[in-house]
Amino acid sequence: MTRIARLFQELKRQHRCGMVAYLTAGDPTPEATPHFIEALERGGADLIELGVPFSDPIADGPVIQQAGDRALAAGTTVEKVLEIAAKVRKRSEIPLLLFTYLNPVLRYGFEKLARDAKAAGIDGCLLTDASVEEAGEYVHTMRNAGLDTVFLAAPTSSERRLKLVAEYSSGFVYLVSRTGITGVRENIADTALPLIERMRAYTGLPLAMGFGISTPEQVAALAPHVEAVVVGSAVVRQIERDPSNLESFMRDMTRYLKSDVS
Fold first, then answer.
1. What does the pLDDT look like over 25-71, one tens digit per residue?
2. What is the number of other CB atoms lying within 10 angstroms of the CB of residue 254?
3. Phi, psi (5° rounding) for residue 230?
4. What SS3 class is residue 48?
5. Which among 60, 83, 123, 227 is annotated as catalytic?
6. In the chain, what are the domains?
7. Model-level pTM?
């Protein structure tokens, strides 16, 4: 059982919605990322999505794109991200999900990535632009290494795609609350709750919802409906603005999640 699976078991036991925090590895430097992860964990994050910077991030909004540019300029590669994960793992058991695009993984190699990620203490992988219809080889390789495979489901996903996402996902399913790119939004999209209901019909896996979740009030609104809430652009923006306040920022985001929301 992965750390991700154990986390969601514990969240269920506590009757609590979890907090997933995304950050771009290597922004502004690879050396800074482990310290940011420590701050996020102290602030209440339950799982970290460790983003691999990529030169053509089609799903990312301007905040994460700019963070990726800074990370690439600082020399961050897949290898460097795995080194970061290994450093974090020496001091923490927080689940780590590698969040990346297909192209860097193809260049690195599925089998090599599975082996090296497992050795570094990564618990699973999410390929944002991977076609679930063609994911059999990738899933087989990752699962054989003991890694979870997380897939995205969006409001525009067909019923067939939702079924495949359910079939190939392990650990949890990542629900995209709205169409379009990542980024801070003022309101939760009207498509969010219907997507949760549709996905529940196909899987008993935990559901985590992200894309545009940027305020404590939005977290509180989603918490009764999903097993975890994902905050991404807001975290990356906070790192850019004032990294010294990251722990306090995360405490504000998670304050609604510490009581029974079942």
1. 999 999 999 999 999 999 999 999 999 998 775 656 788 889 999 99
2. 23
3. -110, 125
4. strand
5. 60
6. 3-257 (3.20.20.70)
7. 0.92
